[in-house]
Amino acid sequence: MKREQTVRLKSGDKAQFIYTELRQEIVEGRLPPGARLIEEKLAARYGVSRTPIREALTLLEADGLIILQRNRGGVVRKYDKKEIYDIYDLRLLIEGYAARRAAQRITDADLIVLKGLLSEAEEVLDRAGRGWMPWNDGLRRLVENNVQFHRLIARAGANAFLEGLWERYTFLPFVYRTLQVYGEEGLKTSLRQHRMLIEAFVARDPDMAESIMRTHLYTGRHAILNAMSASPLSESQPTQEAEHDSTHSKL
């Protein structure tokens, strides 16, 4: 049965809603590199005029996620190895510094949340590894958990500009894909590094926290670049369009 829900929003709110949905689809790989975002089809999908669609696409372009095509919509951007390497260089600076600041400023309440997120992630990985839940479901939960973990570290540094930089350079398709290519053992290593980060925060050791975070990101960069050698994000992929999906809300 088709699920449609009418939501009355102002034009700007509609654009923000559409932007948020499309951004998530791009980040999670449901709209892969090279996928076409056609204004007419998106307008039909969301039951809106082209104006909020164009506004949403402009926001996606500002995020570096798509390339706009005049009067045609946009195409999900492809990243080559150098771009990914360079973006991870930025993440090393941003998140290394965020971890250093967090070690100096993090609250006991934030530490409790981080420990809870780690316990939850370990449980999900254990259940998925034993086949007690579908692997893809477990991976999706681990990705969400990982985002919350790293966002809290960025926020704990008590610098809104730093947190804004983190938001921009973390929600990218290849960052999501990093956890996909880790495999079970790689994910276990990632969670061990999360535990080490918490220990550095508890010890209020900024040097240790920064070093562990940088090692954590080096591991991720190595994994995604190796995966690209096998199946590059920069290579041509079958063109996919953002088709109408009846499970999405009409606005």
From TrEMBL:
All residue ranges annotated as the HTH gntR-type domain in the record: 12-79
Protein name per Swiss-Prot or TrEMBL: HTH gntR-type domain-containing protein
InterPro entries recorded: GntR_C (IPR011711), TF_FadR/GntR_C (IPR008920), Tscrpt_reg_HTH_GntR (IPR000524), WH-like_DNA-bd_sf (IPR036388), WH_DNA-bd_sf (IPR036390)
Pfam (any one): FCD
Regions that span the bilayer: none
Segments of skewed composition (Basic and acidic residues): 241-251
Residue ranges, compositional bias (Polar residues): 231-240
Record has Transcription as a keyword: yes
Keywords: DNA-binding, Transcription, Transcription regulation
Region (Disordered): 231-251
SUPFAM superfamilies per the UniProt record, alphabetical: GntR ligand-binding domain-like (SSF48008), Winged helix' DNA-binding domain (SSF46785)
GO MF annotation: an example: DNA-binding transcription factor activity
